[in-house]
Amino acid sequence: MLHVYERLLSIEERLRAGRFVFPILAKRFIAAHGRLRQILGERLGLGPASLNFMTNAYGKPELIDRQVHFSLSHSGDLAALAVAAFPIGLDIEIMRPVSRDLPDRYFSAIERDGLRALHGETWREAFFRCWTRKEAVIKALGMGLAFPLADFDVSFGNDEAAALTRLAGAPMAATEWQVHHIDVSSDCVGAIAAAQTGWSVTRHSG
Ligand SMILES: CC(C)(COP(=O)(O)OP(=O)(O)OC[C@H]1O[C@@H](n2cnc3c(N)ncnc32)[C@H](O)[C@@H]1OP(=O)(O)O)[C@@H](O)C(=O)NCCC(=O)NCCS
Q1: How far is CA 114 from CA 32, 157, 170, in A?
Q2: How much distance in Å is there from the Cα of 14 to the middle of ligand 1?
Q3: Do 102 and 181 fall within a single domain?
Q4: 77: which residues sit within 8 A by CB, 6+ positions away?
Q5: 24 with 76: CB under 8 angstroms?
Q6: What is the pTM of this model?
Q7: For residue 111, is it within any domain?
Q8: Residue 66: predicted pLDDT
């Protein structure tokens, strides 16, 4: 199957794949980008190899004529793609063991305080809900880590709906944004975010 995906890639994508030191990473890249081309091609009724991409100033890939928007995320040997009619951000993370001081480096004051009260598995699951929601928001904004992660808050409690609850400089953001939680597998969670309301998630796998 990999050779099928490889044939769909642009020269730039093949060069990127060739730069990975570890073959497994090159294979994951080829599979993810080949499948991405197939999915977007099916959606647009175009040949997957004919799609043209560009990246914004922060590295976010987009279709040149933006007929649809998408967001790609990898974690381990899993990859996920969100496709929408508006800018969207997706992040998935396998819930590996992480250091308890990570929130101090990346999260907002309210998120750090909320997480400090949690322990063990409850803390780890809340941490990954928070992480994936924050990554989904910055990927929807298209700015990656150039957007300060402490400048917005997301929900992360087990009994709370996924949400963006504060975005610096955007007082209406909590009502203008929608965030969805995704259980990818028993040890992998994700989030999809957009500065748009009234949408829902339809999942496909394969
Ligand atoms: C690049 C970044 C946007 C996402 O990185 P990530 O979560 O490690 O990786 P993901 O697999 O979820 O996303 C990578 C994909 O996002 C896309 N992407 C790259 N830059 C992007 C940007 N500025 N905005 C949106 N999407 C972007 C690309 O499709 C990329 O896949 P590709 O390299 O195969 O083309 C950025 O947020 C980052 O570097 N994060 C580091 C993780 C971290 O330290 N997080 C802190 C805790 S919240």
Answers
A1: 35, 9, 22
A2: 19
A3: yes
A4: 28
A5: no
A6: 0.95
A7: yes
A8: 75
How long a stretch of residues is the chain?
206
List pLDDT tens digits, range 69-103.
999 999 999 999 999 999 999 999 999 999 999 99
Same domain, 104 and 45: no
Q: Which domain holds residue 43?
A: 2-51
For residue 166, the domain's CATH number is: 3.90.470.20
| Same domain membership, residue 42 and residue 120 | no
Tell me, using a 6 A CB cutoff, whether residue 134 lines ligand 1. yes
Count of domains in the chain? 2
- Portion of the chain with pLDDT greater than 90, in percent: 96
Please give the pLDDT value at position 65.
84
HEC profile of 98-130: CCCCHHHHHCCHHHHHHHHCCCHHHHHHHHHHH
What phi and psi values does residue 120 have, to the nearest 5 degrees? 60, -140
Residues 21 and 102 in one domain: no
Is the pLDDT reported for residue 15 higher than 80?
Answer: yes
106 lines ligand 1 (CB under 6 A): yes
Mutate to test the pocket of ligand 1, among 139, 141, 182 (most ligand atoms within 8 A of CB): 139
Residue 128 belongs to some domain of the structure: yes
Classify residue 47: in a domain, yes or no.
yes
Residue 67 has pLDDT above 90, yes or no: no
Q: How many helices (H) and strands (E) does the chain have?
A: 7, 9
